[in-house]
Amino acid sequence: MLLMTSGMTPSRSQSAGASAADHAHALEQLSRLLGPDNVLTDAATLDRYGRTTGVRGTRPLAVVRPAHTAEVQELVRIAGGAGLKLYPISRGRNWGYGDAGAWEDGQVIVDLGRMNQICELNAQLGYVVIEPGVTAQQLYEYLQQARCGLWMDATGAGPEASLVGNTLDRGFGHTPYGDHVLSCCGMEVVLADGRVLNTGFGHYQNAQAHRVYRYGVGPSLDGLFSQSNLGIVTRIGLWLMPEPEDFAAFFLFVPEDEGLERIIDRLEPLRLDGTLRSAIHIGNDLRVISARLRYPFDRAGGKTPLPPELRRQLRRELRIGAWNASGSICGTRRGVADARRALCRALHPIRPLFVNDRRLALAGRLARWLGFCLFGRRLAEQVELVEPLYGLLKGIPTNEPLHGATWRVRDPRPRVAPDPLDAHAGLIWVSPVVPSTGRHAREVMGIIEPIYHRHGFDAPATFTMITERAMCCVTNISFDRRLPEEVEAAGRCYEELSDALYRAGYPPYRTGPMGMRKLRQGSEVFWDVVGAIKKALDPHNTISPGRYEPPAL
Amino acid sequence: MLLMTSGMTPSRSQSAGASAADHAHALEQLSRLLGPDNVLTDAATLDRYGRTTGVRGTRPLAVVRPAHTAEVQELVRIAGGAGLKLYPISRGRNWGYGDAGAWEDGQVIVDLGRMNQICELNAQLGYVVIEPGVTAQQLYEYLQQARCGLWMDATGAGPEASLVGNTLDRGFGHTPYGDHVLSCCGMEVVLADGRVLNTGFGHYQNAQAHRVYRYGVGPSLDGLFSQSNLGIVTRIGLWLMPEPEDFAAFFLFVPEDEGLERIIDRLEPLRLDGTLRSAIHIGNDLRVISARLRYPFDRAGGKTPLPPELRRQLRRELRIGAWNASGSICGTRRGVADARRALCRALHPIRPLFVNDRRLALAGRLARWLGFCLFGRRLAEQVELVEPLYGLLKGIPTNEPLHGATWRVRDPRPRVAPDPLDAHAGLIWVSPVVPSTGRHAREVMGIIEPIYHRHGFDAPATFTMITERAMCCVTNISFDRRLPEEVEAAGRCYEELSDALYRAGYPPYRTGPMGMRKLRQGSEVFWDVVGAIKKALDPHNTISPGRYEPPAL
Q1: Hey, are the CB atoms on B224 and A226 less than 8 Å from each other?
Q2: How confident is the model at residue B1 (pLDDT cuts 50, 70, 90)?
Q3: What is the per-residue pLDDT for B17?
Q4: Is residue B468 part of a domain?
Q5: CA A335, CA B329: separation in Å to the nearest integer?
Q6: Which of B526, B537, B544 to mutate to test the interface with A (most CBs of A within 10 A)?
Q7: CB B223 to CB A226 under 8 A?
Q8: CA-to-CA distance for A530 and A525, rounded, in angstroms?
Q9: Any bridge partners for residue A328, and if so which?
């Protein structure tokens, strides 16, 4: 316990012997290197980067903004010499997993947002090479303008989120390229001593297959730089999907909670045999409700969590199921038709709703024509709701899912999803990985729901069939950051959820700073090996101390 | 240069201070640990493990054969203490890439062949958990008996090759699960100090998703243990493919050499958009000829390489093209039909030959009925030739491709492919990775063919579209190990091929011991980082010194 506590104090962020004077001197050097506009220490900036959707924010020592790799190399050298601790962020949209903030106090945030070049597009082999500052929206527009017939994958983190950042945190999206690790090919990494490492074949001069073959020759190092603090990734190759001849989105609504097992067990064989190749998202009613409304405190008589009767009522009003799935089918026209048939057969008697461009456009036109009557207005509403999700299934970035972050915020819901930090959203993700079987999904719901409820929270949950065999179960604690008692309850709820899930064998796919102390639970050897590699690559502990670096139990 | 030379001498394999007496004592300890039958130092055994298909074999100090992980842990501890160097092999069928031999003299070969348990089968989620001694044939028979509806992937290394070994060397096969790294989920690794590391989620007690989700949480370490010397892998999870509703193999014969570019550029879009999901192999005439015949020294008047007119003549006799492709389509009946149509459209006017179970059985019956006439005998011959390759496309192990290893051996070709070492086969693979475009393939052929010819060798070549964007070009130097002048020429040819390919930006996907000195060519930082990790995980350099550990240039 002593060890853990000392591990979490800011004192750890200072090298032995490094003084405040050393730090000030280093910041001056950085100011000369990057220009004074790119070394920020004013209170407003530090406050801004110190905000969190979690329980406790951190206060950085400074924010620095390099413009290219050579500057990053030089800045890690300066930082290393002066005992400064660096915390690189790409765009800082790591909502609910630490946001833009460093994981410990007193670190220098390295904001890579200015490094936003799309360095290469290869339309024939389907890839781009991008820097960390490139946002989802930026790449989307670039590909639209290039008319290269390639689709990207987008996530729920919104148009301003970084693609590199999301990939390194092993985020996932909705298209067949939803597993971002699998579409990443070749990393440029600045190491703690300023050297530049290129992974895969990238370290060979003139390497032809650098962006098309992931492993290179010899050990494959890419895995070291996702969810870690072993280097600063300044460039990656990202594979893109050829626009399919045909595309159909499908939506499923399962009225009863008990339908969860059935729907997973029926979809899984189709995921395993490749009939369904996109990430399939299966969200409960609360996931959908929280994306469309804010918590109806008035109708709930101020009580939390949502009373069961009101929950059922909202389900009816929004015409959604207890569980709601979405996914897509890409391929030739015949291939899509064939997969649709297979899906219908597997789900019978549940009937999926298929949507494609034609159908969506038609509904839109119909809604406009019939705008004078109730049916028309309802249809317009439906189209408006389906459109962003439909777009996501085609890799089109949208702000819509960010609405969910503000579920428990006690302000009126704006039309456009706000920045969760501006909106005082409290958001902590709890996201265990689950084998793709109904039994496992039910077991996880059985563990988390009572804990959420006990602490006064709802349990919005999505099971995403991210690969052929596994689902990420994404649930979240939503609270109002302005209410200290809710913040405290959220912290306690997180602890309990986390402990229970580790105990049952369901560690998370990803975690924010709060999760660090949990990471060693029930683990053996692994984190010691990671620590040894950290020591070998970053002996002065310059890069992101504390990030995926759990303190000893 | 001095550094390099000293790097390759056996002296490097002895820790400072470790003496022959220490080694002898350690071998006694190992003998007590494993039983005397499993610690072999007799000359015949050492000779056997010292053989090579390459230029220079190595002589081990001993061969030890642990039976389970705990024994491996204890043996690395004993070895580390006494300065013994260990070289783990799974089944030792690493043909043409070092075979069963250690990469430096004086190492103790750890033969993991006795660890041959299939520890778990999960038919619902499609995976097995296996030890290094499990052979391709063993798993194939196990799956047949279990009737679980799952297919494995098999390689050209033959039925006795280890699946773990092949996966760790990043070998590949012929089915949609041909990229073995992608089907590996969760490794158990014995580290140099005897600790056991479980990757992915495997280090968490009771981890439910261990075998279905690769990345775990925190950095992903699996990549460190393929093509490396950082640990001894004692167990892996291996994903298996659900048997498809329908299956069709396809074969393509392109008469002219110039057809290579066309065929790649037409297949690539189908590979990229997912119409074709299996590894597609495109072999030249020499690849096929060398698998079916031995070098016709008599018809060539003793000359090498094969005279162009004779080469064309053999092509006609075997009714093959200058380039010959094979691949498969798996899916529903409609899906397969649809992909067949797309393939025909893309290749027009070249017409692929489709083969499925029905058609093959029919041809077999027909050949038996018509056995009395020439047509029947020809048909029987054709069926016999196609069957093993057809089987490989369905993941059925076969010895047939091993025939190719003995192309230049001056003995009559036996019916059953012999062990390449028994047959005096000289075999060195040269296998650059190439972006999947015709232009790149042509460039590589343009580099290697003149070099092969200059040294008196043919250039059998296969371009395997192993992923959606890249091909492994697999070529090999074939020679007769009994002829010193051929062995020497092979060595010179390898040096020249290797240098030319690195220079042009085509490093190999994999290499044997001869390739180690080449690995740093044109490379920066990467190998230093690998060296630092090696030092962190294996400070006494106990495991496979020299393996994927290139000496400084």
Answers
A1: no
A2: very low
A3: 61
A4: yes
A5: 13
A6: B526
A7: no
A8: 9
A9: A249
Contact of A476 with A429, CB cutoff 8 Å: yes
Instruction: Give the CA radius of gyration of chain A.
Output: 24
CB A513 within 8 A of CB A546: yes
Q: How many CB pairs under 8 A join A and B?
A: 285
Bridge partners of B86? B108, B543
- Same-domain check for residues A297 and A436: yes
In this prediction, residue A370 carries a pLDDT of 85
Is the Cβ pair B209, A176 closer than 8 Å?
A: no
**Closest residue in chain A to residue B508, using alpha carbons only:** A217
* CATH code, domain with B13: 3.30.43.10
Residues B437 and B420 in one domain: yes
State whether B238 and B251 are in the same domain. Answer: no
Average pLDDT, chain A: 94
In a domain, B140, yes or no: yes
Same domain, A354 and A273: yes
Mutate to test the interface with B, among A188, A278, A523, A543 (most CBs of B within 10 A): A523
Choosing from B242, B271, B302, the residue where a domain stops is B242
B537/A537 touch (CB, cutoff 8 Å), yes or no: no
Q: Give dist(CA B542, CA B82) in Å, integer.
A: 10
Residue of A181, A201, A435 lying closest to B208 (CB–CB)? A435
pLDDT at B219 over 60: yes
Instruction: Look at residue A63 and tell me if it is in a domain.
Output: yes
Residue-wise pLDDT tens digits, B105-163: 999 999 999 999 999 999 999 999 999 999 999 999 999 999 999 999 999 999 999 99
How high is the pLDDT of residue B10? Answer: 40
A83, A141: one domain: no
CA distance A50 to A87: 12
Q: Check CB contact under 8 Å for A230 and B219.
A: yes
B320-to-A499, B174, B342, B385, B401 alpha-carbon distances in Å: 63, 20, 24, 12, 16
Domain boundary among B242, B261, B291: B242
Q: Decide if A185 contacts A164 (C-beta within 8 A).
A: no
* A216 and A100 housed in the same domain: no
- What residues of A are in contact with residue B222 (Cβ under 8 Å)? 223
A94 plus A138 within the same structural domain: no
**B242: nearest CA partner in chain A:** A273
Kindly report whether the global pTM for this prediction surpasses the value 0.90. Answer: yes
Host domain of residue A109: 2-114+532-537
Residues in chain A within 8 Å Cβ distance of B187: none
Number of compact structural domains in chain A: 3
**Phi/psi of residue B249, each to 5°?**
-85, 150
What would the two tokens of residue B48 be? Answer: 């056997």
The answer to whether B423 touches B406, Cβ cutoff 8 Å, is yes
Residue A166 lies in a domain: yes
Contact list in A for residue B511 (CB cut-off 8 A) is: 217
Q: What would the two tokens of residue A375 be?
A: 């049916």
**Residue A440 is nearest to which of B176, B208, B225, comparing CB atoms?**
B208
Chain segment B510-535, per-residue pLDDT in tens: 999 999 999 999 999 999 999 999 99
The distance of A358 to chain B (nearest Cα, Å) reads: 22
| Chain B residue with the nearest C-alpha to that of A528 | B197
Mean pLDDT value across chain B? 94
Q: Note whether B167 and B88 are same-domain residues.
A: no
List the Cα angle B250/B253/B259 in 5-degree steps: 120
Q: Cα–Cα distances in Å, from B396 out to A403, B240, B290?
A: 52, 13, 21
Interface test with B, best of A69, A76, A203, A330 (most B CBs within 10 A): A203
Token pair belonging to B344? 């025909």
Complex ipTM, two decimals? Answer: 0.95
- CB-based contact A216 B507, cutoff 8 Å: yes
Q: Tell me, what CATH number does B193's domain have?
A: 3.30.465.10
The residue to which tokens 């069939």 are assigned: A465
Q: How far is it, in rounded angstroms, from Cα A273 to Cα B418? A: 37
